[in-house]
Structure formats: structure tokens, C-alpha cells
Amino acid sequence: MGDFILEMRGITKDFPGVRALDNVELKVKRGEIHCLVGENGSGKSTLMKILSGFYPYGEFQGQIIFEGKERRFKNIHDSEAAGIVTIYQELALVPEMTVYENIFLGHEIRNGRFIDWNRTIAEAKRVLQELKPDLDVSLKVKDLGVGHQQIVEIAKALSKNVKLLVLDEPTSSLNEDDSEHLLRIIKELKNRGITSILISHKLKEVLEVADTITVLRDGKLVARLERKEDFKESVIIKHMVGREIED
Ligand code: ADP
Ligand code: MG
What we know:
Blueprint: E1 4-15, E2 18-29, E3 33-37, H1 44-51, E4 61-66, E5 69-71, H2 76-82, E6 84-87, H3 99-104, E7 110-111, E8 114-115, H4 117-129, H5 146-159, E9 164-168, H6 176-191, E10 195-199, H7 203-209, E11 212-217, E12 220-225, H8 233-241
Parallel strand pairs: 3-10, 3-11, 6-9, 9-10
Antiparallel strand pairs: 1-2, 1-4, 4-5, 7-8, 11-12
The structure holds adenosine-5'-diphosphate and magnesium ion.
Domain ABC transporter: 6-243
Subcellular location: Cell membrane
Protein name: ABC transporter ATP-binding protein
């Protein structure tokens, strides 16, 4: 298989009255942290919703090549089965359920007809061991802070054998410490061979973790930055807004 785990080609998506994406290309290398940046409304979330099957095949133009094969995802389950897990800003956890129930919700560990709770708890602890060892898996999710809820989402992704993790503005509502912890986790996942796409408007953190940066502006791809000399806030902002910015 080639260098790229994901290639999205010629992606165009229209909403009534607005072309959200116009012939966009996104090429993500196997094992990298790929940052997707752009001003509000530039099309980042829409591109990721196409990747996840939220907008299914037929509701956009273009091609998704994942692990060397063209994929036509019908829904989010389809993309998750292929190993693509997206974590949205609005978390998809069930607040009234415990951490371990949430991690295995929808893919419970069974012993015949019954859920094997002992194994479920042990597995949840194992997955969390590497992310946040001191997190109590029997707490209800509603009693956790946003930073810890974010980690439970990642644990859920890991329990599903994620190959490509997509994080849409994960640190926008996190404090400094939780943001740092999350970025460290993304880097650790990279060491384990998991590819990430990170959407963020915090350029400092983008520059800290990115291997490649794709910049969207008004639904168009305007830059793909790979050379370290381009990894500067001034360069990224110039592409984001389409003109030079005075210092
Ligand atoms: P970003 O995530 O970069 O802020 P979005 O992908 O959310 O941008 O939005 C891109 C464009 O598409 C914007 O003009 C937005 O208003 C529009 N858009 C996004 N989702 C919808 C939708 N469900 N219906 C209509 N327009 C939408
Ligand atoms: Mg968005």
C-alpha cells in the first residue's frame, strides 16, 4: 500500500445557496498527525462529515480512497467499521451511563447472550491505562469534566480498533492542562501507528503537533504545508485569509 492512508479527491459539496466544498483534495500520510485549518465556515467540518459517512456517498461529488480502496460509506457505522472514528466537539457520550458502559456502548463484550461486565470493566481499564490511568471507570460520564469526557471518547475509539482518528476542534472548550494532555495522547497514538486528523484554530498547538497542514479557505484547498520552514503562524494565516498580515 502507498504512503497515503487516506486520499479524498475532488470533493464538492453544495448546501442550498452555498458551495461548502469546491473540488477539495486531502491527502493524509500513514501514521502522521495531519492538521486541517481554516477560518470559520471554510468547510473543515463538512469535509470530515463526508469522510465519516454523515453525508453519505451520493450526497457529494468526489472520491474517498482509504487504505488503497475506494470507499462509499453509507453512514457513520460504515466508516467506523473501516477504522475511521470521528470525535466531535459536541460529544456523543451518554451522560447517565458510566465510563466503562460508554466505552463499549454498541459493541458490548458478550458471553453468549449476556454482556460480560467483568470483562467489560477490565477492558475499559486496560484501554484507559495508557490514556488516563487514574480515571475511575465506574463514574458516570456526567460527573466528569469535558477534558476527561474527551479522553473517554478516545478510549471508545481505541476499543473499536481505530486506524484514523478525526478530532474536530477537540481543545476548543478545554483548559490549558487538558489541552496539553490531549495533544500528548495524540502524539502517543501516533507512536502506536494511529493516524490523526486534527482540526484546530489554535495555531500554536497546530505547530506543536502537525506533520502536515492542510489549509482551506471558502471551501477550497489553498495550501498543503509539509516543509518545516512553512510551519509559521504568519504563513498559515496568510493562506487562511488570503493576504499578507501586518505583524
Ligand atoms: P468549518 O467547520 O470550517 O467552520 P463548515 O464545514 O461547518 O465550516 O461550513 C462550511 C460552509 O457550509 C459554511 O458556509 C456553512 O454555513 C455551510 N454549512 C455547513 N453545514 C451546513 C448545513 N447543514 N446546511 C447548510 N449549510 C451548511
Ligand atoms: Mg467546524
